[in-house]
Design goal:
single chain; eleven-stranded mixed β-sheet
């Protein structure tokens, strides 16, 4: 079993103490077996008044190729391992993948609730029982809430002290409208997409430069820009999926001068905040971090902001990025100064 860290942090073993008043549940309509779903877990409270700092979600057998949706203020650890059997995913047999997702180092006060989303394929399951996702909430140094009891066949989950959240299922022929990526909410429960669009503590961090990051495609149409010794080419942004409030942008910067320059800040009329991020693999560990000190453009070299590496992140987006549209961006360099560019928006996924 391997652990893939999106942001590396230490893990502390916590003692179990808690009395709870509401269960962790999924905010999804029954999902079709064989479909893809953004499984959205609702966490209603902390541990006896203490804030939740970590949420550990164990993925059930049959839920494959999982990808967590990033959340502002939370770090993510992805634990991978072997499945009990092989599953078909787009014509390819998949025998291993993420088996547990941990949202870490966050702060969910006891008086609030929040949602945690994991996208994946329901490759197998039983509509009679659904898929149980055993979940643990960690609160501070000495408290936790365990939602990890899975009902036996024929047992009422309400008889359990800490029932695991269950994603309800329907057979493929019973739900013809639940296509690839379909998801929804129960009546009376918060809609994940609406919460995401609203932002704030309960927002989903639909991190457009992560997840399917290697699949992003340059749609072409970017007009090269020259500023001093810098030349900007191959710029584009990626369309945002429904309920995904964060966008990703990419550009190639060539420094033809004799002195290094530095990208120090980025702004956009289409977003309240734009950050520079880096994604890099170190062995089996994937680390992502914000680059508060900017990005150095060495003399005589080319730096690519591209999927899976350096990239731009657009937060507080005023209108979701749509394929075929454009987004205005201003890059500010130490020496070249402010550079305006227009990024064409390509598809949300590659072919």
């Amino acid at each position: 079993m391997k652990t893939q860290l999106l942001v590396a942090t230490a893990i502390t073993t916590l003692a179990s103490t808690s009395s709870v008043f509401a269960h962790a549940t999924f905010a999804n309509q029954p999902a079709k077996i064989g479909s893809y779903v953004a499984a959205t877990l609702q966490v209603p409270h902390g541990c006896d008044g203490k804030a939740t700092n970590e949420v550990q979600i164990r993925l059930p057998e049959g839920f494959i190729s999982a990808k967590p949706m990033l959340k502002p203020g939370w770090e993510i650890e992805v634990i991978t391992g072997d499945y009990q059997k092989g599953y078909d995913n787009h014509g390819k047999e998949v025998k291993s993948g993420p088996v547990e997702i941990r949202f870490k180092s966050g702060d969910l006060p006891d008086s609030f609730y929040d949602t945690f989303t994991v996208y994946g394929k329901i490759a197998a399951g039983d509509p009679a029982t659904g898929l149980a996702f055993p979940t643990i909430q960690l609160c501070g140094a000495d408290a936790k809430v365990a939602w990890d009891q899975v009902a036996a066949p024929g047992q009422d989950p309400h008889d359990l002290d800490g029932p695991a959240p269950v994603l309800k299922l329907v057979a493929a022929e019973e739900n013809p409208h639940a296509g690839h990526g379909a998801h929804g909410t129960h009546a009376g429960q918060g809609a994940p997409a609406a919460q995401a669009a609203a932002g704030g503590h309960g927002a989903h961090a639909g991190h457009a430069a992560h997840g399917d990051h290697m699949a992003a495609m340059d749609p072409g149409g970017f007009m090269p820009v020259t500023a001093g010794d810098l030349e900007l080419t191959a710029g584009f942004a990626r369309a945002m999926l429904p309920g995904q409030p964060v966008g990703g942008g990419f550009v190639t910067i060539t420094n033809k001068g004799g002195d290094e320059d530095r990208l120090v800040s980025v702004t956009s009329s289409g977003a309240g905040e734009v950050q520079m991020h880096e994604m890099a693999m170190e062995g089996d560990v994937m680390k992502m971090r914000q680059l508060n000190d900017g990005i150095v453009i060495p003399a005589g070299e080319t730096v690519e902001l591209k999927p899976g590496g350096l990239h731009l992140m657009f937060y507080k987006v005023s209108e979701p990025f749509k394929e075929g549209a454009t987004v205005n961006v201003t890059l500010t360099f130490e020496k070249a100064g402010a550079v305006d560019m227009v990024l064409p928006i390509g598809p949300a996924r590659g072919n």
